[in-house]
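WARN no homologs supplied; continuing
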Amino acid sequence: MNEFKRDLISAHELKTVGKNRKALKLYEKCYKKHPEEFSFNQINDYAWTIYKTRIAFFKDEDELFENVEFITQLVEQRNFNKCGSCVYTSSIFKVLNHFKSQNDFASMIPWLRKLDPDLLDEKLYRKHGRFNKSHRELYYDWASKAYYQNMEYEKCIEVSKTALNSLKRFVDEGDTWLRWRIAKSLTEMGRLKEALEYYEKVIEVRHDWYMYRDIAEIYLRLKKPWIALDYLCPAVLCDEPNKSKAGIYYTCYKALKSNPEMALKHAQLYYLLKIQSDYPVAHEIEMLDIDESQLNKRELEKEIRDLWIQYKYKNRKIRHGTIVSFKNDESCGFIKTEDGDEIFFHEKEFEGTDIFIGQVVSFYTEENMKSIKAVNVRGDNNAL
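OK structure emitted
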């Protein structure tokens, strides 16, 4: 047996017992001499030793890219559904995860193009008691984000639709986020009516304020501010802190221009939130010459919230009653109405400070398939 073959056998034995660094030195020595003599399994073993010693716990970014690029030249992508592991796929996913940690999805694109999604598996991986996305879903999720971030909107739509049509199951509402990116891409391309169709499907599942804001912006572009108001209402009234959703008040300003007084109040709140966070202010708002020294942020927030509460319940009847029970440990209780009905309410729906038995309140009701509950409950000193 010649030295070349002995070294290959030794390298394989070292790899088998976990001595990958020593194995790698022998593989590198042999590959420099006779790369053509390597069998499929020997090439694969060589690639895995590179992965385990230089990629799995890399320290230098350039070294990571260089070694992964070399692996993609050594081996081809294998069908993960049949082989259960693939050093080619694992190496590229290491790069993709690196860019994800930096929130740099646009830089993923050339690496994503090295993968064939049809060869990726749809196995759900369980970690810390929950399921994580399969390799194939991760690929489509990252590709969708990457193309959107890189303003390749047609490509974003294409890969997102392919994922929706080909994946059998999704984790963490992955299908909803794909539809959201399709909607955003269509919006950027000016295909507004198509975008609305996707947004309507999205808000059946998600109720994030920025999604409602995006829909409102579309209706403003379509010259339908009265419809925009219906979507701005839940966005303004959501529980998200105002400082994180300043932009919604700018959209409200544009939608409320037929009511100059209220439009200005939204512009003022937007302005205060922006300057307090040290973020740039929209030119249209800067031109209003707002004097922040004359404004009270808390009062503005309350006045604007009251406006939108009135808008939300504009077609509903105000009801009156008395609190007859309240459980502090469960944060809920019942209101007895003037008609003798007892209606459930939750503490989070109470507008005020103290809740007590015998308190006279005003409220609206919301009804679903199972029950009726009181909402926007206010004590008599906070009457609607």
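The first helix runs from residue 3 to 16.
OK
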